[in-house]
Design a protein that fits this description.
Structural class: alpha/beta
Strand order of the largest sheet: 3-4-2-1-5-6
Bound molecules: 3-methylbut-3-enyl trihydrogen diphosphate, magnesium ion
Distance between the termini: 29 Å
Radius of gyration: 18 Å
Largest sheet: 6 strands, parallel
Amino acid sequence: MFIKEKNKLKHVAIIMDGNGRWASNKGLSRILGHKKGLKSLKDIINFSVKYKLNILTLYAFSTENWKRPYLEVFELMRLFSLSIENQMYSLNKKNICVKIIGNRTKFSNILKNNINEIEYLTKNNTGLKLNIAIDYSGKWDILNCIKNIFLNFKKNILNINEIDEKLIEKNLCLGYLPPVDLLIRTGGEKRISNFLLWQIAYSELFFIDTLWPDFTHIEFLNIIKSFNNRNRKFGVLV
Ligand code: IPE
Ligand code: IPE
Ligand code: MG
């Protein structure tokens, strides 16, 4: 399973898209597609642990997804809450450090409590860093960052010359984590849909047609192999 690495792979981000279409194609309700998507999620997390990946950042719910029908949003929030509750001990046993990134203000108290619990339980774990984006958008992240920096500037804690890339990163949700090396989107769409923006400045992008509930670690491994064959240049002549 371990492949020879030409490109160092530390941080993978995935836009887990296509649950609704997977269900509709089978004449099922969209929420059943989301439930089936949890199986792919487990498979990808387990593979990432075995592969000794450092960081996995997953897009589960965008800021724009609140605009979906009430029932779908309600069921998704329930699913997030239940999955966190059911999986926290098993994730902890695997030495995974879980963080939920995004704006939590609209979440129910139950979801907020479950998030606090899983983050507290796993905070000292040294294995895979698993970031799950719920009510997240890249623009929201950058806006928050600007507000924080401006606040410190106003309090005279900060001087304008101290605003550099490192300071911006410190104030973004993923903090000092290394940037995304590989971004995968399942479900056939070729767009970012307001996921990580700053952090994907030099990521290698893979847009694949497989719908998220059909995505497995075998396809993940194949993408990692293709990633390895990419010529990462970072603007330099190589
Ligand atoms: C992604 O699947 C999951 C969420 C956005 C919550 P979708 O629900 O967007 O599935 P499609 O794109 O409609 O098939
Ligand atoms: C992006 O998928 C969000 C997640 C996968 C969580 P969407 O299905 O919401 O994106 P659009 O609407 O196709 O751009
Ligand atoms: Mg979609």
